[in-house]
Amino acid sequence: MNGTTLRRTRETKLTCAMCPAYRFNFCDVGVSLKCGSSASKSVPIYQTVRVSRPRSFILRDVDLNDAFPIICLGWAAAFRMLHDGQRQILSFLLPGDVMSATLLFEPKLTFSVEAITQVSYRILKRSDVRRVLRKSPDLYDKLSSIWIDEKIRAEELIVDLGRRTADERIARLILELAERLASRNMTSEEGGLGHAAVEMDFPLRQYQIANATGLTPAHVGKVLRTFHRQNLIRISSRSLSILDSVAFRRLAYRR
Amino acid sequence: MNGTTLRRTRETKLTCAMCPAYRFNFCDVGVSLKCGSSASKSVPIYQTVRVSRPRSFILRDVDLNDAFPIICLGWAAAFRMLHDGQRQILSFLLPGDVMSATLLFEPKLTFSVEAITQVSYRILKRSDVRRVLRKSPDLYDKLSSIWIDEKIRAEELIVDLGRRTADERIARLILELAERLASRNMTSEEGGLGHAAVEMDFPLRQYQIANATGLTPAHVGKVLRTFHRQNLIRISSRSLSILDSVAFRRLAYRR
DNA sequence: CGGCGACTTGAAACGTGTCAATTAGCGTGG
DNA sequence: CCACGCTAATTGACACGTTTCAAGTCGCCG
Question: Global pTM?
């Protein structure tokens, strides 16, 4: 049985040691909780690891469960659905991201999460996490950066949707993802001479970009095409390169 | 010296007992911290009370201070400013609202806050609040609802800006404010027979509605006018009535 | 090979923005 | 108390960006 024949969501034998988020040390949650940053001794946290296929749900907003899931591998999208079936993506989730920081406090979700690529994720028990937190409250401060980040990204998305053009929104989305991937060592420099290009995996479909930027798939396609023609970026086979990051950034920040 | 001749921001003798947020018992923060919901004895928290004039800054995003401010009276707006001077309002702040929940964890602001009406607010010392939190960590859960609310409203705004028309955005903003005011007993029923109208203070300028909904002042005016013509709402002298809340709600939620 | 989903492209429609001219409203100062 | 002056609201003509719709291509997987 290989990855592509996975049926639905299922549990695997994947351990933390195999998880890139943990290995590259950007899975702060796991590290904090297991190493017990305070003097308190390590508290055992029950974990399961699951794998979801592309386009399958990972969490539904109606579910009430005792889970605190963290992405180990792959991309996912947190989104809300409207009555008419339209979607608005609130954020893309990358390896090391907690799916929803609010789960620290309430077992309620404010959105659903869907796998974009194949996604493997660990599920900590919410009650375990809360128990650890209660034991060493200084962890609150460490974990607070998680939801502060969530909040900041949400606010930035509000500004994008409220006040920026399609070109700016798309450019900024790409740059945001590039930065988040870079901080995870998930980008590579293609050595151009004057200006090195940055390359990254980019599994997003145009309709997903549209759902994140409040645009139409058709229009996203047109904008990406103009970026391409201007030699700002190159997209091919689920991979994206920022060719002229100076010009691209100027476009995104409108100065 | 009366209220209208206030110069700039200044301190007053206003006490908590005079603050409507406290009196009506919707200032959860003050109540929790002072009553010490847990068994721990009440911890003294240093407070000052200030008054800001309309259109004056209450907090600047560049400030770094040790404050944890709570609105007692009046309306304010949390917003981000773009390079070109444009603004995007992230949320309106009403009596009882904490200005920024992130101040619980970091002395950094992600936005600025400006007074819309005259605003009186209490400033708790951040370090005091944190000390109390450390003493009784069960307060984290009580306070968590504050920033979960913040987050949910941010997400709803994202959906509005990304996926809804001007009419829907404006109608939903009005309904959101009506609900938040109602929960504070700050609305009144104008007894219509079949459908009672809901009336509330509404100090927002059209350009402020525009800055919150990602629209243009001119267009906001046109939409409000159509609402008026359809007898859905009535606006006069800083006061708004929802005349036909059924039809208005249908408009806002597009079914 | 067939079929489906994703992407491309273009024409036309639509919603919202832009701009400018005018009016209304309100606080301030004479 | 009135007049001034600023800010907000109103309105209309027009421009622009984005959507809508439809037709067609491409590539992948079964």
Answer: 0.90
